[in-house]
Amino acid sequence: MKLALLPLVFALAFPAHAGELAGVTMPDTDTLAGQPLVLNGMALREKFFLDIYVGGLYLPAKSADGASVIAQDVPKKLHMSFIYSEVPAEKTIDAYREVWEIDPTYPAQKAQADQFCSWITTLVAGQTMTIQYEPGKGTTLLVDGAAKGTIPGIEFMKLIFGNYVGPNANKVLRVGLLDQ
To answer: Going by fewer Cβ within 10 Å, which terminus of the chain is more open, N or C?
Structure first.
């Protein structure tokens, strides 16, 4: 009987990881605002054949539908582990604005987007950046786990998550994050 429980003990003591990509391992679950989230997918963000970061999308339930992920007013989190030696803040901001300028909702969200961009810092290999949305609270940017600020409202959340799983997002990133 005791031997029969051994696999369960090991499973609880050593939780399984959902994925590993480019040397980055992300857990299969996370929590936000007390709600459990599951790793929906992982993707490697590359630019000019350089590996920049590995992103993981956490949702209450798995989904392959980017429009649904963006529209749902539920807790969600995008976690990025940087692997490139140094990514200047300006490069990250330029990448956001490149997608936002195609989005017809951007002009109405420009002030919030500018505020969000002011919190972005230069990131080096080993650092993390997390974007999390809590209904009723808003979208929070964290760098290495420290909150930089929160933008209230659902509309900004839709804009920022559109950068990752929307129709104008980087295709490789979008497909990986929506992987089932």
So the answer is: N
* Closest to 172 (Cα-Cα) out of 70, 21, 62, 60: 21
Closest Cα partner for 164 from 125, 133, 121?
133
**What is the rounded CA–CA span in Å between residue 145 and residue 136?**
21
Q: Which residues contact 165 (CB under 8 A, 6 or more apart)?
A: 57, 66, 69, 70, 174, 177, 178
* Spans of all domains in the chain: 41-177
Q: What is the pLDDT of residues 37-46, one digit of tens each?
A: 999 999 999 9
The helix (run of H) or strand (run of E) holding residue 171 is: helix 171-177
Domain 41-177 has CATH 3.50.70.10: yes
SS3 call for 42: strand
| Residue 19 banded pLDDT, cuts 50, 70, 90 | confident
Tokens at residue 7, please?
């696999």
- Rounded mean pLDDT, 133-138: 98
